[in-house]
Each structure stands twice: as C-alpha cells, then as structure tokens.
Amino acid sequence: MTSTSIELQVNGKPVYCSPQTTLPQLLEQLNLNPRLIAVEYNGEILHRQYWSDTEIQKGDRLEIVTIVGGGMRCNAMLNP
C-alpha cells in the first residue's frame, strides 16, 4: 500500500490499488482471467459490458467467483 493507493474489499479481504484503476486493470493485478469469472460490485452483479467503464473507488466491495467445470466457486486465491 502507498499513500496514493485506495482500499477496497475483494471477497471480504482488503485489497489496494491506484486511484483511477478500472475493473479490468484490477482483475489483471489480481491475476484473474476475466473470461472465467463473475463480479458482484457493491451488491449488484456487474455485466461485462460495463467492466471497462467501471473505475474502482475507495471502499468498493467486490465479490469475485471463478467459473469451474459444472459450476462456480469462490476464487481460491482470494478465499482459500
């Protein structure tokens, strides 16, 4: 964390990123494949068409699930 970073919650854990980070940039920072995940942004499912327009804000809450064969599970990297 730096003095210019912002804090958000991803799957209930604190994560830090630079101001003006877009959702796809954050997913890349977290080493997540955007084709294999679904994102809930502040309590609402966020459709992929809006991802690149979504700029992460201080205090945002994201729930990210990974799609696996036959269903979905919480991402192991974020929720061991």
Folded structure, characterized:
Helix content is 9%, strand content 36%. It has one helix spanning 23-29; strands at 6-10, 13-17, 37-41, 44-45, 61-68, 71-74. Strands 1, 2, 3, 4, 5 and 6 form a 6-stranded mixed β-sheet that branches. It is globular and about 40 Å long. The two termini are 22 Å apart. The mean pLDDT is 89.
Quick overview:
This protein has 80 residues and is mainly beta.
Which features would summarize this protein structure in a list?
single chain; 80 residues; mainly beta; six-stranded mixed β-sheet; 1 helix; 36% strand; globular
The CA-CA distance between the termini, in Å, is 22 Å
Average pLDDT across residues? Answer: 89
Q: How many helices?
A: 1
Kindly estimate the percentage of residues that lie in beta strands according to DSSP. 35-45%
Number of strands: 6
Helix content: under 10%
Segments where pLDDT lies below 50 for 5+ residues? none
| Shape summary | globular
Order of helices and strands: EEHEEEE
Structural class: mainly beta
Radius of gyration computed on alpha carbons: 12 Å
Mind describing the biggest β-sheet?
Answer: 6 strands, mixed
Topology record:
Elements (H helix, E strand, L loop, with lengths): L5 E5 L2 E5 L5 H7 L7 E5 L2 E2 L15 E8 L2 E4 L6
Parallel strand pairs: 1-5
Antiparallel strand pairs: 1-2, 3-4, 3-5, 5-6
